[in-house]
Automatic annotation (TrEMBL):
Keywords attached to this entry: DNA integration, DNA recombination, DNA-binding
Listed GO biological process terms: DNA integration; DNA recombination
Family to which this protein belongs: Belongs to the 'phage' integrase family.
Core-binding (CB) domain ranges (all copies): 7-83, 107-184
Lineage of producing organism: Bacteria, Pseudomonadati, Planctomycetota, Candidatus Brocadiia, Candidatus Brocadiales
Name used for this protein in its record: Site-specific tyrosine recombinase
MF terms (GO), sorted A to Z: DNA binding
Location of the Tyr recombinase domain: 209-421
Length: 425
């Protein structure tokens, strides 16, 4: 319950809204409620400059400087009303201190940023990098050439003092470092001001459940959840099959396009090229998976549905398409209005999450995710004796030590390799 839900909060809030023109009351009510919900502020004493700056930063991710200014102007009016009622001091002395700067003082930075983002191959990564980099320049409010090591250390201290999580801090500096490295390669006069060793950042730990592996029976139970009598059920079954059999990531599944499919099949099998496996442009070699067995049957069943809609198959057409509810026929149909749009990575993750919940697969203290399916696939292959080099190639790992995780996961007390040594019999 926030301050606006208390008796005194309701009274003061309604008093203020009466001063606002009728047509604008709904907007003012919504804007003020959004602020109090942001940190679930229980009292007016919780309204501090720190909270306002955090709110401003959140808004800068989603809105233009003009929109952010309008939102703060509405808040300032309400705070002045609270101040007039007594027992409250408005933390906004001037709106200028909450002005959202672009942080960009010359066109060169914008050009560099656009070129850097063009080297990233997935929309989600582009958006993330753009937001994180712009947040830094909004904070520093300096030209690119003016940034020093001291500025970088000061930014780290600012993030720590404002209780940002270690993972958040790590991601911000990873984004900045990649951007600065790109500029350094393009411009010999520029020197990357980030020295990671001096930052002493804490490497983010994987969440519990990141390396969780499903048993064979759990994986089969998961595959049984989609209703394959429905079109969307066949799509979801194909998605789960690719992720559980071939270990595709959520972003790789969402990013599949028809241009990644080989036109001619060999021995009835379908080759699929997986490009830029972690979203890094021209940084990783292409790898291929060969669809066969039940996974190929599931894939073909979905392709038949797409063809049945009469959709023109082009190279850029996503393999997995979103559905929409048809109010006329009262059923889910493929979203033709979004073509050639695709399922988002978040949508794929939510599909997996929904069926895991439906299958009642649980782990104490662990969150099962789409990535759990990837680890399940490779652990099962290791358990079946597939050579580690083959698993490495299928996974698209550059370092075989990463693939060794699955070999360790596959070892158990029942079939440890040491038991097979003739000297141990």
């Amino acid at each position: 319950m926030s301050f606006l839900d208390t008796d005194s909060g309701k009274r003061l809030f309604n008093q203020y809204l009466k001063k606002v023109n009728g047509s604008s009351q709904r907007v003012y009510r919504s804007e003020i409620q959004q602020f109090f919900d942001f940190k679930n502020l229980k009292g007016i004493s919780d309204i501090t400059k720190e909270v306002l700056h955090a709110y401003q930063e959140r808004l800068s991710w989603e809105h233009s400087p003009k929109t952010t200014k309008r939102k703060f102007s509405i808040l300032n009016g309400f705070f002045k009303h609270l101040e007039a009622s007594g027992a409250f001091r408005n933390p906004i002395i001037t709106l200028k201190e909450f002005k959202t700067h672009t942080g960009v003082k010359d066109e060169d930075l914008l050009v560099c940023l656009d070129k850097f983002l063009a080297t990233q191959n997935t929309p989600n990564i582009k958006k993330s990098y753009e937001n994180l980099i712009k947040l830094f320049f909004a904070w520093i409010n300096k030209d690119l050439c003016e940034i020093t090591k001291q500025d970088i250390l000061a930014y780290r201290d600012y993030l720590r003092e404002n209780s940002y999580r270690d993972t958040t801090i790590w991601n911000r500096f990873i984004s900045l470092n990649r951007f600065f490295k790109y500029i350094e390669r393009e411009n010999r006069k520029f020197r990357n001001p980030i020295v990671f060793k001096e930052l002493t950042l804490i490497f983010p730990k994987k969440d519990k459940g990141y390396y969780t592996v499903l048993s064979v029976s759990e994986a089969q139970r998961l595959l049984n959840q989609p209703d394959r009598k429905t079109e969307i059920g066949r799509r979801d079954y194909a998605i789960l099959a690719l992720m559980l059999v071939y270990g595709l990531r959520a972003n790789e599944t969402a990013g599949l396009r028809h241009k990644h499919l080989e036109h001619d099949r060999v021995k009835g099998q379908q080759k699929v090229w997986i490009v830029d496996r972690k979203g890094r442009f021209q940084n990783r070699p292409k790898t291929a998976i060969i669809l066969n067995g039940k996974a190929l049957q599931a894939f073909d069943a979905w392709m038949d549905i797409v063809k049945g809609y009469g959709i023109k198959i082009t190279g850029e057409l996503p393999v997995f398409l979103p559905f929409i509810y048809d109010r006329v026929d009262h059923k889910l149909v493929i979203r033709r209005d979004r073509l050639p749009g695709a399922l988002s990575v978040k949508s794929v993750e939510n599909i997996v999450k929904r069926y895991i919940k439906k299958a009642k697969i649980e782990r104490d203290g662990e969150v099962l995710s789409a990535h759990s399916l990837r680890h399940t696939a490779f652990t099962m292959l290791a358990h079946e004796g597939v050579p580690i080099q083959d698993i490495q190639k299928l996974a698209g790992h550059q370092d075989i030590n990463t693939t060794m995780i699955y070999v360790h996961s596959a070892q158990s007390y029942d079939d440890h390799p040491g038991m097979r040594n003739p000297l141990n019999k």
